Amino acid sequence: MIALGLEPEPLAFRVRPLADECFDSWIDRVGRAHDVTRSVLFRHLGIEPALAGQDLGRGRRGLDTTWHQAFDGLVERLAWAVQCEKERISATFLACEASALLPRGLRHYACARCWYEARRAGKPEFIRREWILRASWRCREHGLPGKVPGEPGGRLSLAQLARLVVLAERSLAVARPSQKTIRRNSAILAQLVRQSEWQRHRAIDHAYRDRIAANVFHFSADRIAMLALAHGRRGAAPRRFETLISQALPERPTPGGGSLADQKPPYRLQAAFRTKPRSHWIAPELLSLLCAYGALRARQGREAVLQAA
């Protein structure tokens, strides 16, 4: 645990960012290693504590210009505290639009098999930058839909992680995504995560990008299942969900607004009740059914006579 009131010094545990790890995942691992909150960690290192409440997923790009100087100091201080290059800290941020990221409270999706293998190998469990994007729903390495194993830190047992792997494999079999949609998804993720990698993809599916990059499936009870279905052969449910979410809510009524329905006249002033005229029209389907039934009965009658003879 960090002792408050002392001069800033490099941290006791040099928890450095892993390859392709997002900033929130890394800074949370640093805090857990020293048993402190993010704000206490920042205060100890001489970093503006208010930055602990900011969304730092996109780094400098996601902050107002008034925070840029404090953010530059954050990167420099953190690199000094864990004794690594500033570029390694900067690599944890994303350069995409804010609408492409999941809300801050939902950035805990991960591949169960990745975490299972990491636990068995004694390696840290972390969240990749790609997994905090709204368009992300499957692990590129294992091809499994990402589940929610919980916050990193070993809260789930090895058996629980193994069970999540089995559930992910079953959900993939139900969705049956096509290779074409998987390639589309990989291209969009490459564009959002690494611009240099995106240069290799010439064809841009604008309709797919506009729909998936900023999708609202996280409002669903099972975001991953909705995304998997949207990339498979059962896309009707995701389409209905998107239509429902896109519907505008009715405006809040204001005093004096709106209009009243017409008042129903008294019974003595109403027109006399008239019965509807009787119609002899029959639905064509019903008439065809009756004719078919009559022909069948006639055929059955002829067969009965032949059998009796």
From TrEMBL:
Source organism: Croceicoccus naphthovorans
Record's protein name: TniQ domain-containing protein
Highest taxon, organism lineage: Bacteria
Lineage: Bacteria, Pseudomonadati, Pseudomonadota, Alphaproteobacteria, Sphingomonadales
Record keywords, A-Z: Plasmid
Pfam families: TniQ
Every TniQ domain range: 13-144
